[in-house]
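Sample 1 of the test manifest.
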Amino acid sequence: MRLQNAALGAAGLAAFLALGEAVPRLGLVREEYFPPTSRIASAFADELSDGAFWTALGDTLTGWALGLAIAVSAGIVIGVVVSVVPYLREATASTIEFLRPIPSVALIPLAVLLYGSELRSVLLLVVYASFWQVLIQTLYGVQDVDPVAEETARSYGLGTWARIRHVLWPTALPYVMTGVRLAAAVALILAITGELVIGAPGLGARIAVAQNSQAVPEMYALIVVTGILGLLINVGARTVERRALAWHQSVRGEVAV
Amino acid sequence: MRRLLVTLAAGALLVTASACGSSGDSGASDPGSSSGGTTTVKLGLIPIVDVAPVYLGQKKGFYGKRGLKLEISTASGGAAIVPGVASGQFQFGFSNVTSLLIAQSSGVPVKAVSNGIASTGVAGKDFAAIAVKKGSSVKSAKDLEGKKVAINTLKNINESAVRESVRKDGGDPDKVKFVELAFDQMPAALDSGQVDAACAVEPALATIKSQGGQVIASPLVDVAKDTTVAMYFTSTRYQQQNADVVKKFQEATAESLAYADAHPDEARQIITTYTKIPASVLAQVTLPKWPAEPNKESIEALAKLGEEDGFFKKTPDVDALLP
């Protein structure tokens, strides 16, 4: 089953790459603006042998990881506190709904004003965008706590901390993990967008330079890199999720089938 | 209560973000930090052909011998540089003249310190041009009436210049339909017919020409003879507090500009170190002029055009802007 899936996936990718080679070769679009797969591949190989590319990749991953870490910790802590403290949720609900849909990219002028074109500007965007994913999921997760379990824990004399640890957290964890997985992808998108628009060092800035330079195959090669990165991050996040929730019904069920 | 919470949440986010960010860099946040006789200044640039002289000057040691260490930050557009300089993130920046005039007229405290680039002054052989697709019916600037023209930023220097070209050719610039499009997308947009003409600069212009595109006007040449297009600038506050650093930067940049202007091959060579312009394209690129001094009349002409076209909140003070 798994082998068949992998084979299908590979076949899909091969068909896509072949299409990418054929479309410009057949003259459906001009090669100058959409180079065939083989030319992108050779530009990709050139990138891999360039030290500056690896530095840029490192910068992007640093921005992604730091931003995600801040967003996840802040999202979980604030989410739990807001849910646990009575009235705090009502008091913040409309504020959260007001702030959440603001696109992070709209904050670019603010980021530049505060931090110029460096890592911190990118972090601001990444944290803003991915924080809400985690926060909202944490809020939903906490809401899902079984009131009977909660009351039982209370009547057995468990304190606030023990109730958070043994009742609230196991219930909320699957939600939180979904939030983290979504946040991981959003953080990557925002890290690269931030670099692309602001010019902070990283893959995004390298794409911007390639665009300004009319270096079309190099630009697509870098875009392919961001795609691969997204794929790896998604696979990684799913693995982490499966490990953390190995005890949970949803994951156990999946394995049993 | 709610407002307090919002403020607290926003504040907490900003603090965590800044705390994490600053652990990575080595105290570079101190503006113009000096150690052992060298002053480190941050310069905000767009990684394009225009700024080759500072890269060359840095390599040649023109800044170093004056005790300046340049730390170049690249931004992908001029729009990020002006606020960066005004807020002290960068000590110096590079921006086109109209953007500086717009900033100055809206009360942003900027001060030009050195020349940046100038047009070649030769019609048809400038680094910026209005170009059309091969075989287009548009033959001159006047024909742009009712046509779609791509420019990189609306209500900025290139719109001023294109409007002036149309005006000088006897056309009505108000009848031109301007579309905002990044320079790098202009060749493809022109080729596929999404726009009828594009006001492009190098290296996009070289790409357009290599595909048979025709140059119909040189807008920056139409503005004035030898138009000053962009300049290096600082904030008025930094200039007042660090007049000696500004003076050193001014001298070093003037020397770099003169050197780059006299050694175009070396300028072309240095461009390959901070851009990805393919060698075949770079050989075709028309370099701008890099005079050491700005041309005041051309800046006044741009101020006048910008005012006619309604770009400014109030009349900009050219004398206060210039060094």
